[in-house]
Design brief:
- The chain has 95 residues and is mainly beta.
- The protein has one domain: Ferrous iron transport protein A (FeoA) (SH3 type barrels), CATH 2.30.30.
- The two termini are 13 Å apart.
């Protein structure tokens, strides 16, 4: 877990806990940072080649059947199947 300390309206800091979660558990509209890929295989290699790498910030543009996720980054959209989305771990940005 990571602890952030955002400023409150009174100039004080309030601790916020941010946890990693599978991309498939993110919600439409969330902005996330890719942390890591669990597992491997051809699907992960293709995502890496497309630019979806650890550290990349992207937004969740839509959710599909079976846990599929549509992500936006750098003017691109990628559709990621539910099984692969469960292996991509992300953190919410700006939480």
């Amino acid at each position: 877990m990571t602890h952030l300390s955002p400023q409150t309206s009174q100039g004080q800091t309030a601790p916020v806990t941010v946890r990693a979660l599978p991309l498939g558990e993110a919600r439409e509209g969330d902005v996330v940072r890719v942390i890591t890929f669990r597992g491997g295989g051809r699907a992960v290699e293709e995502l890496l080649a497309a630019g979806l790498t650890p550290g990349r910030v992207c937004s969740v543009a839509g959710m599909g059947p079976g846990g599929a996720v549509l992500v936006d980054f750098e003017g691109r959209r990628l559709a990621i199947g539910g099984n692969v989305a469960r292996d991509i771990w992300v953190r919410l940005v700006g939480a």
